Amino acid sequence: MILPLPALHATHGGIWIAEAGAAPRAAGRGEAIARAAETPVLLLNAPLVAARLGLGEVSGLDLLELYAFVHPARFAVPTPAGMARALGIDPPADDTAAAPFLQRAAARLIETLADPAWPEREGAWTSLQSLGRLRWPWAGVIGTAIARPEKAERWLFSRLPEWEEAPARPAPRPVVLTEAEATARLAMLTGHGAEPREGQVAYAAAAARAFDPRAAADRPNMVLAEAGTGIGKTLGYLAPASLWAERAGGPVWISTYTKALQRQLDRETGRLFPDPAVRAGKVVVRKGRENYLCLLNLEDALQGGFQNRAAILAQLVARWAAYTRDGDMVGGDLPGWLPTLFRRAGSTALTDRRGECVYAGCPHYRKCFIERSVRAAAGADIVIANHALVMLLAARRRDEGAPLQRLVFDEGHHLFDAADSTFAAALTGQEAIELRRWIMGPEGKLRGRRRGLAARLSDVASYDEAGGLAIEAAIEAVQALPGDGWLQRLGEMLPLGPIERLLGQVRATVYARAKAVDAGYGLETEAAELDGALIEATGPAIEALEALHRPLMRLAQRLEAVMEDGPDWLDGPARARVEGAIAGLGFRTQTIAAWVALLSRLGGPVDPDFVDWLAIDRVEGREYDIGLHRHWLDPTRPLANAVLKSAHGVLATSATLRGGEDWAAAEARTGALHLEGDARRFAAESPFDYAAAAEVLIVTDIKRGDIAQLAGAYARLIAAADGGTLGLFTAIQRLRAVHARIADRLARDGLPLYAQHVDPIDTGTLVDIFRDEHRASLLGTDALRDGVDVPGESLRLVVMEGVPWPRPTVLHGARRAAGGGTAHDDRVVRARLAQAFGRLIRRVGDRGQFVLLSAAMPSRLLDAFPPGVPVTRLTLNDAVARVRRLSSATGFGHQAIEDAIAGAE
Predict the structure, then answer these.
(1) Hey, is 798 helix, strand or coil?
(2) What DSSP designation does 641 have?
């Protein structure tokens, strides 16, 4: 069956149209734009098609939207080939065949709607009626394909199960695992008949020591383990972690830095618990509240809170919510491409990004995805989280007397960066206005269900007079914080209130001192030797913040008193709501205290523990935030005090934990340096023969700053490798410039090129596409340098535009001065080069090349690459010849390299 609708497929290489019943044909841009405007056409990823046509947007029948309706919570790569695999039909042979393929794919999806065995049938008819009223383009096409149910369908809010309360978990029992027990569990995970890997076995035995009972308070069993790529460290630590959790009756928190590794870990735990029902209770992926769908926000959106395209998105998200595993909208089973189809209109408003949850005051509290995740984590054996969340929870649980006792920090080389963000303070206009809204609720003409403190705690205010007075005082004091329109007022030099006046002085100081004022990007200057006007503005600002801090502290105390009194109305849900309010107040009072501490130091002697600076955040010359920033010079100090010391055992592990240096570097970046006693150390070299599988080429004749030369180099290298290239940039502006110059010509040769910050696709989906298309290439920045796992032939060449020197920010300058000057810069560069090179060889059998387009690469930094890897300095012509020769070679051993060298010469 072929759907009798025209289809349009557009790439950088051309545009094709397939009329109903006719063969596909090439079309010009003008014809395609006119055709799309005349009649609804079938498209795949309308925003991407619009970008290829040079339009702001294009309307049509987007196959991805139909797929999200028919198969919610199912994965599909958003390309013709990916869609074909998801639907079980033959993929198109080339771009010309892609347009008629869209007709076949649409027909397959519509046939599914009438299939009695369609597993996502429930709720579809009801949802379609709502989408029809919203004039969803597909509603008219599929309106008769879904039979009206004989009885009313269970809709989302009646379909979702309720979570149940459970008693507090007893403290874990003291357990000591023997090496034999840990390695026996590892053998069970790897499977019978699997060839034992000596490095993995030794790794599991070493990791087991992180689960021993600690000998003294504030002295966790700290294990630092560097395991090269291919050792199998995931199963290596899951073996002792799962065994300890089983015997001790306690949870192990496994923390990652990237969402990609979280997903990988979640899959790996299937070896531990093959039965999905058992696994659901034993393994939980835990994220921050802002990642999960808020059912109250969704209900508001479905009942008229969203309009136009955002309202359609809300309906499709509701379809997904009825079938999702856990309600995770960021990296879970919601297709990452779905919000981008709607230009993210409304998607962020469907989560609780501002901490405004009303807890038990919500009608959907018992079905809440967030609360379900919290409770599931409390009873799980393995909790998979991220560094930032684990740090925040560990600090909070320490203060509550229930610390996280066993921690595994995978991607441990990122602990420094994660702690740097977690324990920083920033008094900016955006942060201040968010605090104002959290306390005040909606102001003026703002719509929505947002509720301030008075509305969220109305019953407490009526029960406890002192608490009610504290709420009133906080609402009065918060008027001193910036309100709507603050940026415009600062631009016009008409600030309102003490905080806006302070930010106005910050803005003036930055513009007076910062370099490259007209560059269009963010500006900053060190918070030292400040002028009198700025110093004078800090006094009233401190007074305003302290005036707000006091009633919030009183309110927190009154809420704790209400909890102790236990009035009749304080049932389980109400108690949870009050506990949530206490936690929210605790976070915000700590934030205000940090702001006061930051302002109190301005004009005085420099605090050697901190780095303070003033900044204006801009994008393409447009200001979007202004403020003061404070970071720890060494953020692993609060990491050690707030997180590590309260734990009983900590494993910090990574393939690059030492970053090519000695163990002192690993201790410094993980916080072990600030603990009493010595950390255990373990190292296992990668089993890969990097010297035979990879080589490094340093191109010496690309002129720095010459975009034309840079673009030409990327184009020639990608073509020589026949795609499969990951291009890494240190600046978005250069990435965009290179992409604009080479995308079309590569596509015409059948080599698709995708790019972060260019294509209207989220980063996770870009990586999915790159992994799925063996001739595709991907350009990106820091997010693609680490944590991207693309094994096999999809990634066979990594190209970096230059030496990844750190940006010369105020914070970097301070750490550089404290860390040995050039030696500090070298450590940063070595780590980045090692991470980038690590993308290349991910599995046994992988082959590839690493190309650095910089004649200025210092020889002292070459030890960032694995020992024995051939490093050659050569011209671009020679590099292209070598890449072309090696890309066609059947092997990549030493002989293949020598043959390629001979051929290139």
Answers:
(1) strand
(2) I
